[in-house]
Amino acid sequence: MQALLFAVLCLLASAASAHLTPNSEVRLAFGRNHVEADIIIPQGEYAAVTGNPVTNDPAAYRIATAWLARNIGVATPDGRPWAITIRQIGFEQIAGPPDLHAIARLAPPPGASARRFDIDWRAIIAAQPNHFVLFVVASDFTGGKLEDHPRILGALQGRRQTLAVDRGAPRLWSGFAAATALGMRHIAEGRDHLLFLVTLLLPAPLIAVAGRWHGRRATRPALLHLAGITAAFTAGHSLTLIAVAAFGWRLPAPPVEIAIALTILVAAIHAWRPIFPGREAFVAAGFGLIHGMAFATAISNFGLDVTEKSLAILGFNLGIELVQLAIIALALPLVLLLSRSPRAALWRTSGAAVAGVAALAWLFERVTEHSNVVTQIVDKPFVLVGLAGTFLLTEIVLAQKFPRN
Amino acid sequence: MLALAGLALLAALIVLALYRSLEPATQPRPIVYGYGPANFAEAIAMNARHIALGEQRVRDAPDQWSSQESLAQALLARARLTGSFDDLARAQAALESGMATAQPGAGPLLTAAVGNMTVHRLPPVAALLDTLGRAAVPADVDERAEAMAIAGDLQFYTGHYAAAKATYTAAAGLHHDAGIAIRLANWYQKMGDPAAALAQIDAAMASTRAPTRPFHANLLLQKGSIQLTSGDWLGAEASFAAADKVFPGNWRAAAFLAQMRAARGDTGAALAAYTAIPDPPPEVMDAIAATYRSTGDTAASRRWADRATLGWARRMAQLPEAAVGHALEHALVFGTPDRALALAQQNYDARPYGDGLVMLGWAQLQAGDPAAAAATIARVNASGWRSPQQYLVLADAAALLGDPDAAESARAQALALNQRALDPAVSLLWFGNH
Asked: Would an 8 Å CB–CB cutoff place A160 in contact with chain B?
């Protein structure tokens, strides 16, 4: 009887569900004077509707460009047409099955706003009622939209072929504020950047003698040394951030991420035993160049003209520095206090061990592309802050129990 | 120097520990298979003998309902393997003959209930179970448990999910077997709890002494489907491959694996695997047509879609309730919005539950009525049903209705249930992704 019963279950298990055709997606980047549209149309749907060739050759591109021009229109709300220029076109695999991928520049007529227009879209949907076109905002600097995650603007399907877009009045200040907030969020979520900086600061109040950390600097020189390291790190990461973002360089993320984990490992070893004593600022600047590349990946695609891009970079860097300063303001008293404890070596070594283990775990995760238990713990918010707090509390308790003679 | 060596050793130990953390903690216990066929061809041959025996019994004693029942059971078993609607239709006919010749209150009641559930014909099932419960000779405990589980299925496929779970649990209390665990797995999957669903699949396997290879393979396909719908495509592919290895030659496992190749972008290998399936059923033809379409080969796509259209038309004529859901899938991709909407309504009428409503929502969207689609999904959301698909319908409806915030929220909910819900390759998944 079980076999019979199982027969039912197997057939029930194959119950139907909807398998829709893939969607088109149009990502709009709003500039002050024009809009850039990143258009993705499933290649199969394009071929099915048009019968046009889908080969990567100039003739197929010309046909596809002409077809797009016939099937996409943009106009001001009072009906004046915008200029549409297809700047790039090709058949490529972006995610999933191959697509017709085009980048178009949409420019309003003289005197018209680049933020209010109607899109008249007939590509695929005019011939295929089940096709769906999603319009998203990729970036809108003067609208204060800079996150990585595109925001939905609207959709068209079947007989719905016109989308009215109104992004409101442009405000450069909104873009700058959004970039600052993005920078703050980016560094606050970037546990590896912060751990690197704090680890580098751990031995800063100390003096190296014969390959060991011995003795400590007076408060003023220690503070100056700390400030020097922080300033050097800031200079380093700002340099690459500005260079990469300004010139629009595309860097592969994995090597940069692996290099960042290595910088933490080196900093952890240095906190345990001095390997570049007195040259911390230079190392901080050099390693800052690497961390800046990672920062730049979050900002390089925002802003369409020089003014917007400059403000985006400036705001983003400001956000990073604000959070970095706040972290240093919190970490500095802790580092100075623990460095003056009779158990200073224990705290420094423990801090170095935590950083070293975290660095190895990140390194392993980034090389193998597999998460592990250490990174899962360290990546949780407040784990590292909680650990530092535990060090501090333990020191306070021990200091009261075993007062210095 | 000694300290540096110590540090290097510590680092090596940490790396080793991290590496070991990637490996499964325990090896699964080896499975000892019991009776039954070793592969698909053997299963078909074995079934052919059972069917021949059933036919012989019907010829020898056409007035005895037990003869018709044994033939129906053999035909249902082959339909399970092949997906043949001819066998399902013949099984239904045999069961009807058996019921017609039986005394009132007797007959192949449980098998008829199973047969009707199999072909999605729900209305007669309650009466059959009721008759079974009032039979002069009480059924044994495992038959009563199975009847109760079918009553749970009836509740599930009419949208009464809490009642269905209570009934399944009661049936398990009467006699717990793999069938109940598999039903509970389906229940948990549709309520948005894939971890609990997978635990039920593991429990079903663990509770079966000496499983057969087809049984194990079907469990693995079910497991892979749960993994697929929760976005674990690698895990799903591994489960499908395991099913293929356990019970070689099964066209279903081949089709499941082919779609994973297509989703990975290897459409050439996917098409080769699909077209190697002998006498492909229309759902495989649809998958082939969709795969060709994704490559831009419109002519081949149309050719296969036309073949599938004929196949679905034939199946709709044979067993409309069983075919309508799949015919609807076909219409949503290759047909017209009006046809899809009509089929969606017919499908929902046959089985008014979550999947039926979600598909109705898709059809309403395609028919240009996003407001109706949003209202349909509101009903699904209120019922406790939790699938990525319902939130995708809602997201599209909200975007079309000019409510981007609601669309964002619905997409986030879909992604929470299935991190690959928005992957464009989903359009190439035709098996188990529901």
From this structure: yes
